[in-house]
Automatic annotation (TrEMBL):
InterPro entries to which the protein is assigned, alphabetical: Nucleoside_phosphorylase_d, Nucleoside_phosphorylase_sf, PUNP, Purine_phosphorylase
Family: Belongs to the PNP/MTAP phosphorylase family.
UniProt xrefs under SUPFAM superfamilies: Purine and uridine phosphorylases (SSF53167)
Name this protein carries in UniProt: Purine nucleoside phosphorylase
């Protein structure tokens, strides 16, 4: 099946997710996975602390998935066995809404994780920070979100309660593991352009703390599938107009590297206790 078939109205996206999960089960030899992890910008080195994958699958081998579109992202998924026998399905990349492949493609990894047996998904991303005190390299727990994409992964009269999109128990667990962890509201813009300073001011006024181009649609699809959701952002830059000095890309890269250890330990310790 071609990756764009998933957007055909006659295709059932859950059936494609079932087919994808079957390929993952076959290639890993594991009938089910327990936790899924989506790696956003800057999170790959952190995820390496989770454990060693015993299987790596090219996205292009799995129904409904496409190759990575963002430089620095890996177009593969990996299966990491944990000491207690559980398995983590680690997605090295995601499909963004701005790629124009449709919302079904954006949430296909989430639905595949659900079909593979995962009851929890950890969504990570790199984003812009609205609070000046959050320096590049600061991980922030997502407490809630504002979806400014004007779309939804749900089709038809599918009413899903979003009171606790980001599972309170998992947020408590993360803060227990790292009491200094900040929390904030993530605002998803469509992108792929970054915001103007006026849009960033708007995001603050409406209650946002972080701006990015992913995560909210995936979180909604995960809730629809009945999964628990944990969202963690890595602030890689101050959002436009927040810092008086223009962004120094080298500084951002350095900050990401410096954060890898903290973020990786956090991820590993959270996954251990989920
Ligand atoms: I990395 O400042 C990263 N992704 N929308 N704004 C938006 N997305 C981002 C940003 C940012 N930084």
């Amino acid at each position: 099946m071609r990756a764009d078939d998933i957007d055909d109205p006659s295709t059932d996206p859950r059936q494609v997710a079932q087919a994808a999960a079957a390929v993952i089960a076959e290639r890993t030899g594991a009938p089910r996975h327990d936790i899924a992890l989506v790696l956003g910008s800057g999170w790959k080195p952190a995820a390496d602390l989770l454990g060693t994958a015993d299987t790596e699958i090219d996205n292009t081998d799995v129904p409904g998935f496409a190759a990575a579109a963002v430089e620095g992202h890996t177009g593969t998924m990996r299966s990491v066995p944990l000491a207690d026998g559980r398995r983590v399905l680690v997605y090295g990349t995601r499909t963004h809404y701005y790629e124009g492949r449709g919302v079904r493609s954006v949430v296909h990894a989430v639905r595949t994780a659900a079909a593979a047996g995962c009851s929890t998904i950890v969504l990570t991303n790199g984003c812009g920070g609205l609070r000046p005190e959050w320096e590049p390299g600061t991980p922030v727990l997502i407490s809630d979100h504002i979806n400014l994409t004007a779309t939804s992964p749900l089709e038809g009269a599918t009413f899903v309660d979003l009171t606790d999109v980001y599972t309170p128990r998992l947020r408590d667990l993360a803060r227990e593991i790292d009491p200094s962890l900040e929390e904030g509201v993530y605002v998803q813009f469509r992108g792929p352009h970054y915001e103007t300073p006026a849009e960033v001011r708007m995001a603050r006024v409406i209650g946002g703390d972080l701006v990015g181009m992913s995560t909210t649609l995936e979180a909604i699809a995960a809730r629809e599938a009945g999964m628990d959701v944990l969202g963690i952002s890595l602030v890689t830059n101050p959002a436009a107009g927040i810092s008086p000095t223009p962004l120094d890309h080298q500084e951002v890269i350095e900050a990401g590297r410096a954060a890898a250890q903290r973020c990786g330990e956090l991820l590993a310790r959270i996954v251990e206790r989920i």
